[in-house]
Amino acid sequence: MPKVRAALIGAGDRGTNAYAPYALQHPDDVCFVAVADPLQSRRERFAKLYGVPPERCYPNAEELWARPKIADGVIICTSDKEHYIPAKTALEKGYHVLLEKPLSTNPARCLSLKETAEKNGLTLMTCYVLRYTAFYQRLFGIVQSGRIGRLVSIQQHDNIGHAHFSHSYVRGNWRSAAASCPMILSKSCHDLDIFFWFAGSPCKSVQSFGRLHYFTRENAPKGAPDRCTDGCPAREDCVYYAPSIYAKENSGFASSIVADGGDYAARMEALKSGPYGKCVFKNDNDACDNQVVNMLFENGVTVSFSINGLSYECNRNIRLYGTQGELRGDLLRNTIELYNFKSGAVERIELHGRPDRQGGGDYGIIHDFVQVLNGRGQKLTAVENSLESHMMAFAAEESRKTGRVVDVKEYAAELRAKGNLDSE
Questions:
Q1: What is the pLDDT of residues 3-49, one digit of tens each?
Q2: First to last CA, the chain
Q3: What are the structural domains of the chain?
Q4: Residue 23: how many CB atoms within 10 A of its CB?
Q5: CA dihedral over 394, 19, 319, 174, signed as positive or negative
Q6: At 203, which helix (H) or strand (E)?
Q7: How many CB atoms lie within 10 A of CB 54?
Q8: What are phi and psi of 315, to 5 degrees?
Q9: Do the beta carbons of residue 309 and residue 165 sit within 8 Å?
Q10: I want to staple 314 with a disulfide (CB 3.0 to 4.6 A). Which of 67, 161, 225, 233 is the partner?
């Protein structure tokens, strides 16, 4: 196969550290020929790692589009509100696109991207990494095999973990709908995609409840300042005291995000002025720290989905109930248990996924995209599939805000009729 040429737009953590490493592991299959990012430090770091020449390192995507087409595909990992324009432009310029979730924070724009891809005969895939994990692939295979009979119901818990939630959804980029989009879309649209995949049927209706319960001003410690670094009296006891999270040794990838790879002094300085030094109880966040979504699919399968921001572990647990058996899965431990109603037997399956942050999903999505560009991929997360889960997410948020059960098809039809493309 000819080597695929790729360009990256948005050289942050996901683009540089999750998806691009595939090119280092398979240099004969794909190479990066251009990068666009507003931060010079990110551009230079990416160029050094992946051999991009200086003349193809751009401060914005517009400069890439101004040149003749130099790649087969574009991987877009910008912030949520900056997905639509580069994705639509790339498709119009003749590039295949792999786009970080969500497609857009505007439902009409999601529909527009699908239409643009179809009009130009190009592939648009969404970074729904869960479909590519060994865990969900194995579960799907068992369901398809009929070993639990006909699938009737699914229960899943997405335990975000209190540390991850406070970092991303209280202090971070996804802390509010205004800064990003509702959490059911930004965090959980690929969970909704898993349910659509397993059910093998469009979703008929959704009902959702949830709110921001704990990370509010009413729960701030007495005398707590707006910033942890301003002499907080609760610093010895507070789980979320910023310096104890971000300024310690070996505090993980989150610290590199705080100060873009800086040392202790740089991180402490960032906490004095940046978002990650703010008190978690005194921020502008409105992301739900707890939410439940109930779904009815057109073939009768029901789903109960719970999102928990105040959990100890960062993990997903799933149960699938069939007419002849039950499946129980633990994503963190990569284990599956299969219960047979007739024999009473219990089969325990231990999986060994690739050692990336998404259990092999990061590797799998890039591998498939590269194969698709060579005419051989599965295209599991093509826009015609991922659009369904986006509509489910928008409908779930509508239900959460209004308290009513929302018919997904009717809701999508209303969005098409409105056709509002004005804002992300």
A1: 999 999 999 989 999 999 999 999 999 999 999 999 999 999 999 99
A2: 38
A3: 4-128 (3.40.50.720), 131-215+286-357+380-418 (3.30.360.10), 217-277 (no CATH)
A4: 21
A5: negative
A6: strand 203-211
A7: 8
A8: -160, 160
A9: yes
A10: 161
